[in-house]
Here is the input.
Amino acid sequence: MKNLIKSILPHSIVELYRQHYGNKVDADIQVINFQVNNFCNSRCVMCDIWRKNDQENINTSQFKEVLQDPLFKNVQHIGITGGEPTLTKNLAEYFQVAIEALPKVTGLSLITNALLPQQIKTIVKDIADLCKVNDKHFSVMVSLDGVNEVHDLNRGREGNFLKVIEIINWLKEEQIPFSTGTTITKVNIWNMDQVLNFLRNNQIYGRFRVGEFINRLYNNTEGHAKVLRNFNEDEIYQLLLFYSKLEYSYETDENVKNTYRSIKNMLQGGQRLIGCPYKNRKAINLDCHGGMAYCAPKSKVIGNLLENSGEQIYKKNLKVLHEIEKNHCMNCIHDYHSDPTLELKTLLETEKKYKDLIKVSVYNDLKDQFSVNYTNSNPEKYKIFIVGWYGTETVGDKAILGGILDHYSEKYGSENLDIYISSLYPFITERTVYELKVRATVVPVYSEQFFQRASVVDEVIVGGGPLMELDELALIEWSFNLAKKNEKKTTVFGSGIGPLYSDEKKGAVKEILKLADSIYLRDNKSSNFAKELTGRDDILNIGDPAIKYIQKLKKAVNVSEVPNKFSCFLRELTSEYFGNLNYEEYISFKEKFEEGLARNIIYLSKKTGLKPHFYAMHNFVIGNDDRDFNYNFVNKYFSNNDVYIEDKLSTVETIVDSMRSSKLNLCMRFHSVVFAETLNSDFFAIDYTSGGKINSYLSERNKLDHMGVMTDIMVDETYLYKKMMQINLV
Here is the structure.
């Protein structure tokens, strides 16, 4: 009806129609965001309230008058902010008024910068006691924008971080519910992983927002544009990694997860994927003068509650709200949590549907019933579809992909190739394609496109990586199955095999090998296992595809000059490599190994005068971000030692440089061993696979003397030094 009217009536009449019917929509305000003052003792890079020195605010009597407006009869929560709210010394009285004036309020909250610890403790204790007596829930949010000096830099106050810690510890002692709130800017972006590790290690819950242009913060300026939503390609990718970490391994509230999913979508150029309580007419913003705004980020003050009724102000100015919805809402990245949009619901439902298919048991049930037929859109080019664990790739996987693409480009000519790469998490592989400087289409695994592409390309290729104890082996089974049904070629190219524990997963690997036209594996152990499993004698060991790519880059990468550098490429021990241990045994072994490893590194550093540098071969939470291991490992064992931790992104080029510029490389990740050996660097490997792929790789190269075992590291702090002495590395 509205579209019909809009198409036939003049604009002025349409506006009258919209105002009339739009104003019929009643607000049901359930949340108030109240700024009790408009001055602050922080000097935050994302806010200019502190520059205003606005010392005027409504008193408690006026505040009571405001809250008694019928517009607020259903309010369930009020959050009191500022400025810095604890600079209002009678702050507890405002909470008292809120409890008395809002008949349905059940929760009250406060946010603080922690800059005046003693004053804050007194005020917060009074408010907590008040809420307890009145049976109201109370919580505090403490601003935490970084660890140590990074927080102080973002907040503009030296020593602020230590005061945050003091307030956090006090809130714990007093058993007052609290969380932390982090605002991400260009200043602190590379410190977010350390913040999250701090929260995890101290069992603190926190939330993370991307700094936004917000009217009430007076930050819509050219200066603030340099630090707000002004991220380069590396910073955007780091944020995508970080919000994925929050989504998959930290946050448990589904609404907050949806907020993080929405932020990720917006960082990639999309629109907001969640609603907003302000847009949904469930929340309102009140300033310290009695002024009301539809929302904090983009609304102007639409009226003063000391002069007019809230309902009248709200309804009279709905045109302002409509304009905000039209011009700003879908691009607002601020973390107001609300229901998912239809677009997000559809994305999640589609992902779940296809995830249910990518299981070995489901494949076994449906493989003979499921077929897909599509038309080849461009028969002139040779089409390859590379499948495997892409979307979770390590630096080693990036080198593998580079090697495979070089092989096929040499074979068919790059101009004659159409390249498709399946991805479990497409933004990861989009980044890999960007780093490798290749033209390729990334295909989401959990989509119809995946099944379509496997059916129409000329060749489906398992692109390296291990065929191991993972349910996602089904994605390879499906791609090979559909390719064979459509008479397409299937190739296993440069993979390893194992570890495998269950008969189901062994059966899945057998199925993959049975469906493969050509099988090229990366080591003799895998080749022999595959021959025994299948009875085939046409299986070849071609080595790791990453090797040729690393050799190519060895000539191209300029090497940094860093004196006395000792590089460590470590990883967390994960349970899939300890299938013979129960959980308690695994944790005990892991802790003893890490302690022994730290003692060995410290001893080696002291004996040689080399400074440990910790690098990451993997940056994604799925598969474990090695930077997290490095932060925790160093914080726990190296507090009195001079070390370096790389917190930036890892690429094939940066790893080549870090190894070649080092006097000694200590390697755990399998491909760190491949890199180090291929680059002819001085290295020593730790066999965390207990006789698996690292052992096989070095055995074929007669370099088992460059490898040590975990059990010896656990019991002897001189072990690494002595082993390296034996082969003249130190």
Notes: The two ends are 82 Å apart (CA to CA). Residues 684 and 706 are 5 Å apart (CA to CA).
